[in-house]
Specification:
Oligomer: single chain
Strand content: 25-35%
Bound molecules: zinc ion
Strand order of the largest sheet: 2-1-8-7
Number of strands: 8
Structural class: alpha+beta
């Protein structure tokens, strides 16, 4: 009887240990999955119009619409329009109705991609004179 109880205790302890290990492993996996991307510090400086700038911190989640050289409330597809998306520390041109859409092909701008990008820290929409620059400051 006593031995049975001891065995049951041992079994329960093993189960607890197993659960603890499983939990720790799960916590590590979750941390890896949700760790912030490198480079969430910093900011994106958007240049438009006659030299106006708008600075958005890299950690922000934000969509910026620029139409005919001004910040617009929403996307309408009219005029010279650019839709810039900032999310998870990176920025990209989500929509643009410029002639060749080159700015949309420039991909995602973040500290990890600047080395590989032909335009480095910039996304450029030359026809609309809209520029996004990754800055190490702010954030
Ligand atoms: Zn463009």
């Amino acid at each position: 009887m006593e031995r049975n109880t001891a065995a049951a205790h041992r079994k329960r302890n093993l189960l607890l240990l197993g659960a603890a290990i499983l939990f720790a492993a799960l916590a590590v996996v979750l941390c890896l999955l949700f760790r912030p991307k490198t480079g969430v510090a910093g900011s994106f400086v958007i240049r438009y119009g006659d030299g106006q700038t708008l600075t958005v911190a890299a950690w922000e989640t934000r969509t910026v619409v620029i139409r005919d050289g001004r910040i617009a409330d929403e996307q309408t597809g009219e005029g010279d329009e650019n839709v810039i998306r900032i999310e998870h520390g990176e920025a990209w041109m989500e929509q643009a109705n410029c002639p060749h859409g080159e700015c949309m092909k420039q991909g995602r701008l973040n500290p990890d991609t600047v080395q590989k990008r032909p335009l480095g820290t910039w996304i450029v929409c030359a026809p609309h004179r809209v520029y996004i620059e990754l800055s190490e400051e702010g954030g």
